[in-house]
Design goal:
Distance between the termini of chain B: 45 Å
Structural class of chain A: alpha+beta
Number of helices of chain A: 14
Distance between the termini of chain A: 45 Å
CATH topology of the largest domain in chain B: Methylamine Dehydrogenase, Chain H
CATH superfamily of the largest domain in chain A: Dipeptide-binding Protein, Domain 3
CATH architecture of the largest domain in chain B: 7 Propeller
Helix content of chain B: 10-25%
Largest sheet of chain B: 5 strands, mixed
Shape of chain B: elongated
CATH superfamily of the largest domain in chain B: YVTN repeat-like/Quinoprotein amine dehydrogenase
Strand order of the largest sheet of chain B: 2-1-3-4-5
Radius of gyration of chain A: 24 Å
Strand content of chain B: 35-45%
Largest interface: A-B, 53 and 57 residues
CATH topology of the largest domain in chain A: Dipeptide-binding Protein, domain 3
Radius of gyration of chain B: 31 Å
Number of strands of chain B: 30
Strand content of chain A: 15-25%
Number of domains of chain B: 2
Oligomer: heterodimer
Number of domains of chain A: 3
């Protein structure tokens, strides 16, 4: 005689009554239409290393055309790409990488250790890179335990040839009008499986308003959405996807402090800034107020850096200095958000008794800068951020979370930078885009995207 | 006891399988042990053992002594079990040592906060553990106005680790922070079952690499064959577990397409054939088991005896273009499809094709009937049972998402009707094939939480 567990049945039935989501097998074919704001003049990720590192859209494009030796997964763990195995000597100064067999560049030529070595020598002049049969040996000038994360950066992509470099990525360049249009064609013999879409069309240099209009008129499938418009776009029924907060908006001084008095004035400015109201008013609640360079989700200690304004202490610090100069504050004139933030900082500073003057000149005392997280490896990301902000290289005493904190704190104590906000990268998607896949840095993985015929 | 020592050796990961009951008991035990000796604002006294008083032994009745021994043994066993669930001792001690290195022994005020995904009971447990460790290092817990330093301990986390941080402010206003990190475990998954005409779901195998198909070879011992992109793995059933026995490499010249698919078919004259896009592999018929693979455009078998049918598979795609061999009656072509299921009728076989266009096509040898809104996904399979109409179609559900369901349907005429509750999977179904023999199907789900591929055997059981 069968026994039915009625309570289990009731619970199961209730569970089954809840809406279930499921998978439909992906379709091959179609063209994905993308619009982006930046307008790169070159596709060479080595030549454009800084721009690529600081723009998730350019970084995403690079990895469609070029492969790297390794990639980092969502938890920052290295995964094989063109290198299938690796080992280091005990000092982590000499590394050997075994190359994947059977990989071809888009011009049909095979990937060899000679070509890979030449590419890595080009992007890393300080490394000694030697081909060794089907392997590569890299010797760093000093121990380089983070080399696996470095090799995952788009700046270390394996490319061949000058002018229009050839890659081994899932898409080859079909048509390229620098700064305007790019057509990418799926490679049937891509070593990691052909992408689902046949091609990708990228329209460059489009401002966010043009992009939103194109999405609404079904002339684009993927558009960038400004952080301050993401909430509204979603509320109006558009499909909006966001990354983790990866973009840092910071105030950066052009030079080191020249005296202890200047240090006090910089303290006063940092204490006067009301980040929360910037977030709530200027960004419509988007993003996270931050006192650190790296986002909290990457380090776990970001909350240790204070973010709250303290006008009383700011005034006290200001009053400790007899004369306060008028600082000029610059921003990117093409960035409306940067202008709003600069204006808000001037008001906050005035409340503390500091005089700031907004300027669109190229050279100013301090500047509102926006940079993106270059890696999910925090050590690499901190070093890259310091470079992009014009700060000295962080001093990492080791590889523990405490060493990282000490290095980041050191950069902040230099008083060259005042972090303000971390913003997510947001994209609007058309109803045809399926299996959209972006990592926590907002980098697209378009080889897995496929085009549906109806709304999801 | 062995389990205890193994846990302690690892000591840096939370036991993902720790039962809530064990966790609760751990908390209770730690509360009873610690709460009496430690309070955040009370002076800590280290426990000491008294010497035994000899005459006391004689005064205890024998039955009480036996009871004491039994309870003592029970307590030791109980405590050992609880200790298995508690795995925070090493990081607690590590952070306490770092704190004590800054503060030295003395009076401190301490506060705790949890910014991590740790549940409250674990957080409370860690809080008590840290207090205990700090107390052992000479820290006394007092109200802030009496403290030489204040501590704010925060349990935080980043991409892959827990980060435990102590902010220390000395009486002179000096600030320092000490921290440790420890790997964060991945979540555990659960499975559910349901009734009346019920799909029985049995987990056969789970692994990180994508599973294309799997098959159980009944025998003594039974074997499990798992088809992957680069190899076929054989496991032997021993002590109720699948033990690795042999691995056979799959060789192929061309790169695999994305959304790779493959099928295992058990054979009578040799163990199995494996079909992959553009590649056919055959196991040896005699002697040591080997696998020979060759480039092949041969059609794949898509049914099972006696409902056999073959279809060509697009070598660089994830679907069958629709060329059938020998065909369904007069029909030798069909729309491109992902999977097929056969239902025997009195005079013919009705073939259901989950087509690439999202529609369900019914081929009876003469007509191609299209059903548009079935809500079925891309994976369907036939299963023979002793229930209902005798043959059911298992189908996953259309859509996108982090979970999936499979439900049994019966097709009395042409309209599929649900015949069972749906069973849920913790990730999308990536493969579903009828097993050789036809009485069960293999469904592979990609668990969205653990990222593992899980191969299940699905069979129909009759409800009441």
């Amino acid at each position: 005689m069968r026994h039915i567990d009625w309570p289990l049945l009731v619970v199961s039935s209730l569970l089954l009554a809840m809406p279930a989501r499921a998978a439909t097998r992906p379709h091959y074919g179609g063209t994905l239409r993308i619009m982006m704001q930046s307008a790169p003049a070159s596709l060479d990720s080595i030549e454009n290393a800084n721009a690529v590192a600081n723009d998730p859209a350019q970084s995403s494009l690079s990895r469609l055309i070029f492969d790297t030796m390794l990639s980092l997964d969502s938890q920052g763990r290295p995964q094989p790409e063109l290198a299938v195995a690796w080992q280091a000597d005990p000092s982590h100064q000499r590394w050997q990488f075994t190359l994947r067999d059977g990989v071809r560049f888009h011009d049909g030529s095979p990937l060899t250790s000679d070509v890979a070595a030449a590419a890595l020598r080009m992007s890393n002049p300080s490394w000694k890179v030697v081909p060794l049969g089907g392997s590569l040996v890299i010797e760093c000038p000093s121990p380089c335990p983070d080399i696996l994360a470095e090799l995952a950066l788009p700046g270390n992509a394996i490319a061949k040839g000058d002018g229009q470099p050839q890659g081994t990525g899932p898409f080859a360049v079909g048509n390229w009008q620098p700064g305007k249009k790019l057509t990418l064609i799926a490679q049937d013999d891509y070593w990691n499986g052909r992408a689902f879409t046949d091609s990708i069309q990228v329209d460059m240099g489009k401002n966010v308003r043009e992009q939103m209009l194109a999405l609404d008129l079904n002339r684009a499938d993927v558009v960038q959405i400004a952080a301050e418009q993401a909430h509204r776009a979603a509320a109006e029924g558009r499909r909006v996807v966001r990354s983790s907060p990866v973009e840092l908006i910071a105030l950066v001084f052009a030079r080191d402090r020249q005296s202890p008095e200047e240090g006090r004035l910089r303290d006063a400015l940092a204490l006067s800034i009301d980040r929360q109201s910037m977030k709530n008013v200027l960004l419509q609640g988007e993003g996270v107020a931050t006192g650190g360079i790296l986002p909290d989700w990457l380090t776990g200690y970001g909350f240790l850096f204070p973010v709250d304004a303290d006008l009383q202490r700011a005034r006290q610090a200001r009053n400790e200095v007899r004369v306060s100069p008028t600082w000029t504050l610059g921003y990117d004139a093409s960035d409306p958000l940067a202008r709003l933030i600069a204006e808000r900082i001037v008001l906050n500073a005035r409340d503390a008794g500091l005089a700031l003057q907004v300027s669109s000149a190229a050279s100013t005392d301090l500047r509102v800068l926006r940079i993106s997280l270059s890696s999910v490896n925090p050590s690499i990301a901190l070093a890259s951020a310091a470079r992009s902000l014009g700060l000295p290289a962080p001093i990492l005493g080791g590889h523990s979370v405490e060493d990282l904190y000490t290095a980041e704190r050191g950069l902040l104590l230099s008083q060259r930078v005042i972090p303000l906000l971390h913003l997510p990268v947001s994209y609007g998607l058309s109803g045809s885009v399926r299996n959209w896949n972006q990592d926590n840095r907002g980098i697209w993985h378009l080889e897995d995207v496929w085009m549906g015929t109806d709304k999801p | 006891m062995l389990r205890l020592s193994a846990r302690r050796a690892g000591d840096d990961r939370v036991p993902s399988t720790a039962l809530p009951v064990a966790s609760l008991l751990t908390t209770l035990l730690r509360m009873t042990i610690r709460k009496h000796s430690i309070d955040e604002h009370s002076f800590i006294q280290r426990p000491v053992y008294n010497s035994r008083v000899p005459r006391m032994l004689d005064s205890t009745p024998r039955h009480l002594r036996v009871a004491t021994v039994v309870w003592g043994a029970f307590f030791v066993l109980f405590a050992s079990t609880l200790a298995c669930a508690n795995n925070w001792n090493a990081p607690e001690a590590q952070l306490a040592q770092k704190i004590a290195a800054v503060t030295g022994p003395g009076a401190v005020a301490v506060g705790f906060s949890n910014r991590s995904s740790l549940p409250k009971n674990e957080f409370d447990d860690i809080r008590r553990g840290l207090l205990s460790e700090m107390a052992a290092l000479g820290l006394r817990f007092v109200p802030p106005e009496q403290a030489a330093a204040t501590l704010q301990v925060t349990l935080s986390e980043n991409l892959d680790s827990y980060v435990w941080i102590a902010e220390i402010r000395s009486g002179g206003g000096e600030f320092s922070a000490v921290m440790i990190s420890l790997p964060r475990p991945e979540g555990a998954s659960t499975a559910r079952e349901a009734a009346p005409l019920i799909i029985r779901k049995t987990l056969l195998w789970s692994q990180d690499e994508r599973v294309l198909d799997a098959s159980v070879v009944d025998g003594n011992p039974s074997h499990l064959i798992v088809l992957e992109a680069s190899k076929v793995s054989l496991y032997k059933l021993q002590d109720s577990r699948w033990q690795p026995e042999q691995t056979l490499a799959i060789t192929h010249a061309r790169p695999w397409p994305r959304d790779l698919r493959g099928r295992l078919v058990l054979r009578k004259d040799h163990l199995f054939d494996a079909y992959l896009p553009g590649v056919f592999c055959k196991s040896s018929a005699a002697g040591a088991l080997t696998l020979t693979c060759r480039d092949s455009e041969d059609p794949w078998p898509i049914g099972v005896d006696p409902l056999s049918l073959n279809a060509f598979f697009a070598p660089a795609r994830n679907f069958f273009p629709g060329v059938l061999v020998p065909g369904v009656g007069k029909q030798t072509t069909a729309p491109a499809f992902y999977t097929a299921a056969a239902l025997p009728r009195e005079n013919y076989i009705l073939w259901l094709l989950a087509a690439v266009d999202g529609q369900l096509h019914l081929l009876d040898g003469v007509r191609d009937q299209v059903l548009v809104k079935t809500g079925w996904g891309s994976d369907i399979a036939t299963v023979k049972s002793s229930c209902g109409l005798g043959w059911q179609v298992l189908a996953d559900r259309a859509g996108e998402g982090s979970t999936d369901t499979v439900r049994a349907f019966e097709v009395a005429d042409r309209e599929p009707a649900p015949a069972s509750p749906a069973i849920e999977f913790d990730g999308p179904i990536t493969a579903m094939w009828t097993e050789s023999g036809g009485t069960s199907a293999i469904a592979v789900a990609h668990n969205s939480e653990t990222e593992k591929y899980e191969a299940y055997r699905l069979a129909i059981a009759c409800g009441q």
